[in-house]
Automatic annotation (TrEMBL):
One Pfam family it belongs to: Acyl-CoA_dh_1
Listed GO biological process terms: fatty acid beta-oxidation using acyl-CoA dehydrogenase
GO cellular component, as recorded: cytoplasm
UniProt keyword Magnesium present: no
Organism (species): Paraconexibacter algicola
Residues in Acyl-CoA dehydrogenase/oxidase C-terminal domain copies: 29-178
Full protein name: Acyl-CoA dehydrogenase/oxidase C-terminal domain-containing protein
A Gene Ontology molecular function term of the record: acyl-CoA dehydrogenase activity
Keyword Oxidoreductase on entry: yes
Cofactor(s), by name: FAD
InterPro entries: Acyl-CoA_dehydrogenase, Acyl-CoA_Oxase/DH_mid-dom_sf, AcylCo_DH-like_C, AcylCo_DH/oxidase_C
Domain of life: Bacteria
Keyword annotations: FAD, Flavoprotein, Oxidoreductase
Family the UniProt entry places it in: Belongs to the acyl-CoA dehydrogenase family.
Length: 195
């Protein structure tokens, strides 16, 4: 489900594979560490794509509110719907700042594992909330395949799973918070360490 990978993800099974020592990338047993380093950039790239799609969904939703009428007035004049797009704007703002900060830490060689986990989790879930609101405001048009919104809705659900499920990232985040607390330290450095 979803369009995050043209052709989908195949299942590949490797059995009794032997790799000559000269063909190893890194040292024996270092595969997980190498993969984790690659995942940081990949997770940020996903988050940036989700932000772009979320922005497009909010643009389309705002246009819809101005064009569609209900009960004798534009949907944009209904306060409950205004709240929905305001919430989407706040989700986008927080998502953008998280990505920028995490990318800055990666670029400057600072510890970034906690920020990547928080960013991947928050932005994937914000993406889901923003697109869910877009579906709701578009009504039947939001679930029809004529607009890209229904496809984005599928993509948003998948985003909480691939490159680390939200639950796994939450365990990583909590583990760091508890480690600092057990050492008698503030959890500040595990919450972005900004100020």
């Amino acid at each position: 489900m979803g369009s995050h990978s043209p052709g989908g993800h195949p299942i590949v099974t490797l059995t009794d594979v032997r790799v000559p020592a000269g063909n190893l990338l890194g040292g024996e047993g270092e595969g997980f560490v190498i993969a984790q380093k690659r995942l940081a950039g990949g997770r940020l790239a996903h988050a940036m794509r989700w932000i772009g799609v979320s922005q497009r969904a909010l643009d389309m939703t705002s246009e819809r509110l101005l064009q569609r009428r209900s009960f004798g007035k534009e949907l944009a004049r209904h306060q409950g719907l205004q709240f929905m797009i305001a919430d989407s704007a706040m989700d986008l703002y927080a998502s953008k700042l998280m990505v920028l900060h995490a990318a800055w830490k990666v670029e400057n060689g600072l510890p970034y594992r906690q920020e990547i986990a928080m960013t991947k989790t928050f932005v994937s879930e914000a993406f889901g909330r923003i697109v869910d609101r877009a579906v709701q405001i578009h009504g039947a048009a939001g679930i029809a395949m004529d607009l890209p919104i229904a496809r984005w809705y599928q993509d948003a659900r998948a985003a909480r799973i691939y490159d680390g499920a939200s639950e796994v990232h939450r365990m990583t985040i909590a583990r760091e918070l508890l480690k600092l607390s057990m050492q008698g330290q503030s959890t500040r450095q595990a919450t972005g360490d900004i100020f």
